[in-house]
Design a protein that fits this description.
Elements lengths: L7 E2 L2 H9 L4 E3 L11 E4 L3 E5 L18 E5 L6 E3 L4 E11 L4 E7 L1 H4 L3 E3 L5 E2 L4 E10 L5 E3 L4 E9 L29 H8 L1
Antiparallel strand pairs: 1-13, 2-7, 3-13, 4-5, 4-7, 6-12, 7-11, 8-10, 8-13, 9-11
Length: 199
C-alpha cells in the first residue's frame, strides 16, 4: 500500500480545520476538549439500565430488546451508582456528524479505566457519514460502586481519514443504517437483521 493510501489519524490542528470547514460537527463543542489527536466527549444524563431478569432468563437476539432496559435520568448533582458487575448503556452529550471520508474511533478515558470503568470497544467504531449521538456500553469491573455524573468526561473520539470517500456512507438507504440520527441512548436493534432476512 502506497504511503498516500494509508489512513491517517487527524491531529488537533487538522481536527480544528475540519470543524471550521463544517465537515466534522461536534455539538456542543468546548474547544478546551480538543486533545492532541482526539476530542473529549461527555456523558448525557439519560442511561438505559437492564431490568431484573425473569423467565426465560436469557436474551433472544431475534426479539425486540427494547423492553430489556429502562431509562434512568441522572440528576444534576446526584450521581448514578454503577454497581460492581453492572452494565449500562449511555450516550454522549454531543451530537457528532462525520463526512464520507472520515472515520471516528471512540475510546474510554484512561483515568476511568484505571478505576474499573470500562467502555465496551464494540461501540468504538463510528462510520463515515454518521450523524447523531453515540451510544456506549459501560461496565464496572471494580469491587465497589463507581459514580457517574451527568456531563462528566466519559470518552474521547479520534478521527482517521479514509483512502477515498466511502461509496456508501452510513445512512445510505441501501445499508439500512439502524442508528442513524439517534438523539438519545438507544438499545440494541440486532433483531432487525433477522426481520430483514425473513422479508
Amino acid at each position: 500500500m502506497a504511503a498516500s493510501e494509508v489512513a491517517m489519524v487527524l491531529s488537533d490542528r487538522t481536527i480544528k480545520e475540519e470543524i471550521a470547514r463544517g465537515r466534522i460537527i461536534i455539538d456542543p463543542l468546548d474547544p478546551a476538549y480538543i486533545q492532541p489527536a482526539s476530542v473529549d466527549v461527555r456523558l448525557d444524563s439519560r442511561l438505559l439500565v437492564f431490568r431484573d431478569w425473569h423467565p426465560p432468563f436469557y436474551i433472544d437476539v431475534k426479539q425486540n430488546l427494547e423492553g430489556l432496559t429502562e431509562a434512568v435520568e441522572i440528576e444534576d448533582e446526584k450521581p448514578f451508582l454503577l454497581q460492581p458487575g453492572e452494565f449500562v448503556l449511555v450516550s454522549t452529550l454531543e451530537d457528532i456528524t462525520l463526512p464520507d471520508d472520515i472515520v471516528g474511533r471512540l475510546e474510554g478515558k484512561s483515568s476511568l479505566g484505571r478505576i474499573g470503568l470500562l467502555i465496551n470497544s464494540t461501540a468504538g467504531y463510528v462510520d463515515p457519514g454518521w450523524r447523531g449521538r453515540l451510544t456506549m456500553e459501560l461496565s464496572n469491573v471494580a469491587k465497589v460502586p463507581i459514580t457517574l455524573y451527568s456531563g462528566m468526561k466519559i470518552g474521547q473520539i479520534s478521527f482517521l481519514r479514509l483512502t477515498t470517500a466511502a461509496e456508501r456512507p452510513y445512512g445510505d438507504k441501501s445499508l439500512g443504517s439502524r442508528y442513524q440520527g439517534q438523539t438519545e441512548t438507544t438499545a440494541s436493534r440486532l433483531y432487525q437483521d433477522f426481520e430483514n432476512k425473513s422479508s
